[in-house]
Amino acid sequence: MSDNEEEKSTTPEGVHWYVIHTYSGYENKVMQNLRHRIESMDMRNQIFRVVVPTEEEIEIKNGQRRTVQKKVFPGYVLVQMAMTDDSWYVVRNTPGVTSFVGMGTKPSPLADEEVRFILKQMEEEAPKVKVNYEIGQTVKITDGPFTDFEGVVDEIDEERGRVRVLVSFFGREAPVELDFLQVIRVIE
Q1: Which regions of the chain carry the CATH code 3.30.70.940?
Q2: Pairing of strands 128-131, 54-61
Q3: Contact 174, 167 (CB under 8 A)
Q4: Contacts with 10 (C-beta within 8 Å, 6 or more apart), sequence order
Q5: Using an 8 Å Cβ cutoff, are 101 and 21 in contact?
Q6: Any bridge partners for residue 15, and if so which?
Q7: Are residues 79 and 88 in contact, defined by beta-carbon separation less than 8 angstroms?
Q8: What is the pTM of this model?
Q9: How far apart are CA 151 and CA 162, in angstroms?
């Protein structure tokens, strides 16, 4: 059985994924409101899933590493539903929803391939590292044998979470490879 046949066999006829536009920053609140309305208005047989596409990102600030959920499409929420007058009304009148995405007044469903790609990306993607260092920027080393030395960022390896810093000592510049957590930006 192909992926397409499998998708059709698990998805009821006439059910598609739609994109709704929300106020930016209110995606999770809209998802929560819509899930509450689905329950309270007994729409479980017409509105099946509500998803805010996110990906994990590791932020490193001031030598601290933390994992955050970053929205892939800020201002948008995905809804799997059978498009009826009732389901359209429930979604459209959920607080925080500004509109459906589509041509004119009729919402356009997403292609099955697009939805599969987005959902798969959410599940499988390894966290991305977000650093606030730039090549040529001055940083201070906070850990290791070169603690308290300052140097200039020469190379950033986001895959490995490493940064190469040119440190000057005894009148010579030497490259030092460090973990992102071992340096902090010098505010100039």
Answers
A1: 15-123
A2: parallel
A3: yes
A4: none
A5: yes
A6: 82
A7: no
A8: 0.65
A9: 15
CATH class of 15-123: alpha beta
pLDDT per residue as tens digits for the range 28-79: 999 999 999 999 999 999 999 999 998 887 777 666 677 788 888 999 999 9
Query: What DSSP letter does each residue of the chain carry, written as one string?
Result: --HHHHHHHHS-TTEEEEEEEE-TT-HHHHHHHHHHHHHHTT-TTTEEEEE--EEEEEEEETTEEEEEEEESSTTEEEEEEE--HHHHHHHHTSTTEEEE-SSTTSPPPPPHHHHHHHHHHHHHPPPEEEE---TT-EEEE-SSTTTT-EEEEEEEETTTTEEEEEEEETTEEEEEEEEGGGEEEPP-
CATH 2.30.30.30 boundaries in the chain: 137-185
**137-185: what CATH class?**
mainly beta
Q: What is the C-alpha to C-alpha distance for residues 19 and 100, in angstroms, rounded to an integer?
A: 6
Task: Dump pLDDT digits (tens) for 111-152.
Answer: 989 998 888 888 776 666 677 778 899 998 888 888 889 999
On whether the CB atoms of residues 141 and 147 are closer than 8 A, the answer is yes
